[in-house]
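Replying to the earlier thread about multi-chain prediction with a worked example.

Input:
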Amino acid sequence: DVAEQLTPVLLDGLREESLQLVSKLKDSSSSCAVDVSTMWWEAAGCRELCVVTACESSVSLWKPLASDRWGKVYTWQLGEIPVIQIVPLPDTCNLVCIALGDLEIGEIRLLLYSSENDSFKRSLVKTGNIKAVLGLKDRRLVSSSRTVQEQQVEIVSLSETGRSKDGQTLMPPEETVLAFAEVEGMRDALVGTTAANSIVVWNLKTGQLLKKMHVGYSYPASICHRAYSDSGLLFVVLSHPHAKESESCGNPAFRVIAFNPKTARSTGVTFSSLPPGHAGRYLEGDVKEASAAAVLTSGAIAVWDLLLGQCTALLPPDPDPDPDPDPDPDPAGGWALARWATTSACLLAGQRDGTICLYRY
Amino acid sequence: CSESDLGPISLNWFEELSAEAPP
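Result:
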């Protein structure tokens, strides 16, 4: 019955690309999901892709059981500072970072499992007035933070046991960096988006700021999600939380833009707009490979193929209607989180009540 | 997009910008 209720609405006849509900997990001890992610966990010689859920005061690790069920392995209880987001570290095992703070990130902590003595630990990685953080390949973490006078962009390397090794600083741009993305296939290249709507490119090895390129005035406060270089161009996937609807492009949630880093000129490649007739705008989302997913202000989740610029599936705002309707229902109820697992084959969708649904895409 | 829109394209843009940028 549940699977039937949650069957996503398909658009434009793209029926081969749909979302299939695989399983649900709900932490009975928590009422609200702040973030969800996946991490590899290896214990007793067995390596499994696990789900990590965060509520304001704790982070839990869930392992797959038989019959598409999930069992909680461990919960890290955190202090008085609320958890804001999970910061996954790609291609690592038994390590995940979390960002904590009030309104803004005040500290980043590492949560880890030691298979040597079968114990769960935590350690402090960084404190400060942190504006953006991203886990990079090879157990590295990049963050931007601000003091009154200046901005610091720093890379911290983490060891297998979680201890921070020497950090490296990158040359900061004048504007505050609000998001980072690794340039796929280029180990030493990193891009960021700034508060003044520019893309900046760094050389991670030397710390040099190589280029600053303006995104344009039509789409303020762009956030970078993904970047890759092809045929001498830098392709960047951006989301536009504050984009205004236009006749030519509809209401764009994501755009793929090609930059020529030599000249700083750019051109739009694809627009991924809200489905026709769908009111509201982009709230938050995630990109993996050519797939993008976002929670909309209506409480729905939309999924796009970024190469086609086309919406391929939509989870309606109220996927699991209460048989005894609330007399005062939340008008924007439904979904709160949309995250891809380590591949775009699995979507983790979080409801406002803390339930996480796993969909095969 | 054509090359004329974006200006001259270099496959080695990362190395070239790294050589040009201040250390």
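The interface with chain B takes residues 171, 186, 188-189, 201, 203, 206, 208-211, 229, 231-234, 258, 260-263, 265-267, 269 of chain A (CB under 8 Å).

Feel free to reuse this layout for your own posts.
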